[in-house]
Amino acid sequence: MTNKLQRKTKKNTQGKWLTIKMAYIDREDEPSMNQLAEEFDVSHSQLGRKAKDERWLIQRRIHWDKIGIKVSEKASNKQAESRAKNIMVIESGIAYIINQMKSGSIDAHLSDLDRLVGRLEVLYGGVDSRTETTGEFEATLKEMNKLRSKEYKDYVNSNKKDEE
Questions:
Q1: If 35 and its partner were Cys, which of 4, 31, 129, 155 is the partner (CB 3.0–4.6 Å)?
Q2: Contact predicate 116/94, CB 8 Å
Q3: Are 24 and 56 in contact, with CB atoms under 8 Å apart?
Q4: Largest Cα–Cα distance in the chain?
Q5: What does the alpha-carbon distance between residue 129 and residue 44 come to, in Å, rounded to a whole number?
Q6: Residues 42, 20: contact at Cβ < 8 Å?
């Protein structure tokens, strides 16, 4: 009978320590050892030894690091979905304007198209006029803008010639 009682008591004690450990690791309020000792009515020194021996602090940090990573991933997935939707809308707008320009149904200005393309570049990770750039990257960007403007002008001019 005593053996059974000892096993049951040991099992209850293990369950209690697991509950305390999970409270220390999982709870968002990050309870201190003093708070847990008082809450679970255990000796502060015994709790401290158990936590140190089982490396609860490291487990807590790993646990919350994993949560941080998951939260960041979910947030970045939502941002990516939103960005993808914006890209689709802008690409559709660009295609619509180009088709309207080809058919002569719209009197769009090159600056309108350029603004849409610029926004599209930002969504794809490029920089805009508010972003500080320096050195070689800035020179490359200027060169790309010159080429882009020249291509649009050439495109518009070729459409005008086709219409005449």
A1: 31
A2: yes
A3: yes
A4: 107
A5: 59
A6: yes
Dist. CA 113–CA 79, nearest whole Å: 25
State whether the Cα torsion 47-53-54-60 is positive or negative.
Answer: positive
Cα gap 54→46, rounded to integer Å: 12
Q: What is the pLDDT of residues 26-52, one digit of tens each?
A: 999 999 999 999 999 999 999 999 999
- Return the structure tokens found at 25: 């690791």
Listed residue (164, 153, 26, 159) closest to 102, CA to CA: 159
Query: What is the C-alpha to C-alpha distance for residues 115 and 101, in angstroms, rounded to an integer?
Result: 16
- Token pair 């969504």 is found at 123
| Whole-number Å distance between alpha carbons of 32 and 14 | 20
pTM of the model: 0.50
- Alpha helices (runs of H) in 2-43, residue ranges in sequence order: 2-26, 33-39
Tokens 């690409």 sit at which residue?
A: 91
